[in-house]
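Page 37, top half.
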Amino acid sequence: MKKWLQQTLIVTVALLTFGAISPNHEIWTNLQDKDEAKQANLPSMDTDYQIDITEASVEQQPFERVPSFEESLVASAKEMSYMKFGTKIGPVIGDEFDEVIFPKIEEAIQMTLERSGDLATRRLAISERPAGDYSEKIFNVYDLDSRTDLIRFHVRTEKRPQDGYFYNFHYHIADDGFLAHHSIGDIFWSKNTPPKWLS
């Protein structure tokens, strides 16, 4: 008789509330017979739980090394270079740039930093946006306090008769008033006109 009463009560509550309220399960445990095991599904209060932690089960996280100032500067330089290349030029010249040109850019940055004096007292940064269209500027390394450039990295598009288009990577330094043209290297594009930078 109790099963019939229980089912009727469930259907009544469901119909009256349109299923929005489900009957409380505590009601059903009180309606069960005494000889049924009410506590069969409940965990025992006197159960002891143990967790064995051994050295093998604990993963040790490697200590993350904070990059040096020079490493941060070089990483930003690479990021600015690829930003300038855009999605049309970057995939075509990226491999050769990484293997041939960028190590020379890294070397030029390190030489300039060594000549620029005490790095601990100087605050240096890289310009935030490369020039688009057909402009040469990739990025500049400058002193934040004096707002003067130390080194300027450029890439020029050159059309060579019979050979096609090349990208000439070079830099200028403050020591000579940015007049001398320090060549880094060339990357061949093709005989077709290259797209604009940042495209």
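Page 37, bottom half:
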Amino acid sequence: MARPGDRPLWIPGIYAAASWAAAAIVTKSLPNVVPWGSDDLFTILVGLGAAGFAALAVTNPRSGRLRGALDYYGPWFIAIGVWLTLWELTTAKTGLLPKPFFSPPTGLLHVYVTEWQRLLICIAYSLRLWALGFGLGAIFGYIGGVALGWSKQFAYWGMPVLKLIGPVPVTAWIPVTFYFFPTTFDASVFIVALASGIPVMILTSSGVAAVNRAYYDVARNLGAKPWYLISRVAIPSSLPHTFVGLFMGLYYSFAVLVVAEILGAKWGLGWYIQFQTNYSGYANVYATLAIMSLLCAGLVKLLFSVRDRLLGWQKGFI
């Protein structure tokens, strides 16, 4: 029977420690069908993870942010350990999923160990291209969206054009970009900007058009001029729609980033994926895709933080 001062075990932590320890044991004890490298390092890392979960299971914090995170992510920690074990078994240990089409976790880790310098350069180039394209697309998409939502005359001419361009995949504009842009880098920026700008423009125009007309009437009765109505009424009220468009544009821009870099880039994650695919380096491809997923998730998290800060005054209303 537990005494009042005792801390009960964090049960998911025990299971997580067991699943991660199983991944370490499988990696170290069973022979590889095909050598991949970095087995010892992977064993150490997942072993440390298992030890960390075991320590958390014993200490079991009772409150605070850590406790909330443990309760929420506990099943995921278990699932990741099970997944790593099965992944290693079906690839490196049994060859059920054969090389080169499938890579074990040790294969991906080996890519990071041996290619980290080149990958860092590719990340920097890709982030530069993405930042320029997404930034320009968001700016011009936002300005165009406000104009479409506010001005009936502008919407009369602009909305049909937007409806014509919007459904067309951005990759279909690649031949046009080669003609109008002097360098392949400029063409790549345009492709990314187009992918991010269209959803921002559509959602922003929808947000401006959906603003309650009573707000405008009240502001006009108080002597507000058109610019004041746009900057202080239309734009703040439409920001929730704009952020939805930004989230969509962020995902779309990352989706076309690989294609944009294939146009002629000498560096970048998209270029690296294409280069490794040509030589059947699928472990490198999977490792790069994992990096892109983490980068995209981090940028989404950052955009959520910006949204929460800018729209804090609307909390409870949106």
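Margin note: The CA atoms of residues 108 and 287 lie 5 Å apart.
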